[in-house]
Write a structure and sequence with these properties.
The protein has about 290 residues and is α+β, with helices and mostly antiparallel strands. The chain is built from ten helices and ten strands. The strands form two sheets. A five-stranded antiparallel β-sheet has the order 2-1-5-4-3, with helices on both faces. A hairpin with a 2-residue loop joins β3 and β4. The chain is elongated and about 100 Å long.
Length: about 290
């Protein structure tokens, strides 16, 4: 075994790992592999053994090393940008990546959730959404020499949520999940619109009950928590706290139980039925007039 091979750490063999082993690194900014610092080899071993997309951005130029999962994300750019500065690998993201490298080499970490980017991949521009985590790679003296990047492609989930939001808005249906232990609810944007709540308002069952007509509070979820399904279909009136306007809301939900933990989730929908209620009143009044003739 030669000296270069003896310095290498063990990681998953075959495929792209073999390509990395066989590449003549003397023609890259990293230089001959025999001269690589131990921490780079150690980090490369970690990255190559991982099943999630990971990359190393080495030095101030962010020279790229990455694993098979990252290569799959990169598409046709792989393997041409292996060993190249990240500004050349992803020129459309040069400003963002330069900032990331600068901050991480200053010893700080960065995290982004559902970060939108437009990248060129497989011959076309694509919108992607990503979870990104960056942390410094330090030598034995604690000096940052590179950046460890972990990527998760959330594009499918984000697009699904976008389609759902459009469908909810078009259909006037809001969704929610209720947590009786804390009283809080996770709600969609359309649910907030139906209840007249802004985006910054923390939605709780106490708040929602306070917005109901006093005569309708007995059919709210908290009042029926002892029932097998406290979210059975119900119709109630919401009173606008500013204008005093009365809006009718219908709610339907179900309890989702976990067989293993025994815990229950309370999931449902709400929709504004004011127009229907007004039509019913108009029809009733018309029928009463006809009967009076």
């Amino acid at each position: 075994m030669n000296e270069q091979n003896s310095k290498r750490k063990h990681y998953r063999s075959g495929g792209f790992a073999t390509h990395i082993d066989n590449l003549d690194w003397s023609f890259t900014p990293l230089g001959p592999r025999i001269a690589w610092p131990p921490v780079l080899e150690q980090t490369l071993s970690l990255v190559m053994s991982a099943g999630v997309p990971m990359a190393i951005l080495w030095g101030t130029d962010g020279v790229m090393l990455y694993n098979d999962a990252y290569a799959a994300f990169a598409g046709q750019r792989h393997p041409d940008f292996l060993g190249r500065p990240i500004s050349e690998a992803w020129p459309e993201l040069a400003t963002f990546n330069s900032r990331v490298v600068r901050i991480a080499l200053d010893g700080r970490t960065l995290s982004f959730r559902d970060r939108h980017a437009v990248i060129e991949r497989n011959g076309e521009l694509q919108d992607v959404w990503l979870n990104l985590d960056f942390s410094p790679v330090r030598d034995h003296d604690g000096v940052p020499l590179g950046v460890l990047a972990i990527l998760k492609d959330t594009t499918h989930r984000v697009r699904t949520e976008q389609r759902l939001a459009i469908a909810q808005q078009a259909g006037g249906v809001g969704t929610f999940e209720w947590y009786p232990e804390t009283g809080e609810l996770d709600v969609s944007d359309e649910y907030r619109r139906i209840w007249g709540l802004d985006a910054d308002t923390t939605v709780t069952d106490t708040l929602l009950v306070s917005l109901l007509h006093p005569d309708d509070r007995a059919i709210s979820g908290p009042s029926r928590l002892a029932n097998s399904n406290p979210l059975d279909y119900a119709e109630y009136r919401r009173i606008d706290q500013v204008t005093g306007e009365v809006r009718w809301i219908a709610r339907r939900g179900q309890v989702v139980s976990s067989e293993r933990t025994g815990k229950r989730r309370f999931v449902g929908i709400a929709f504004d039925i004011t127009a229907r209620k007004q039509a019913e009143v108009t029809l009733q009044q018309s029928e009463e007039r006809w009967r009076g003739l």
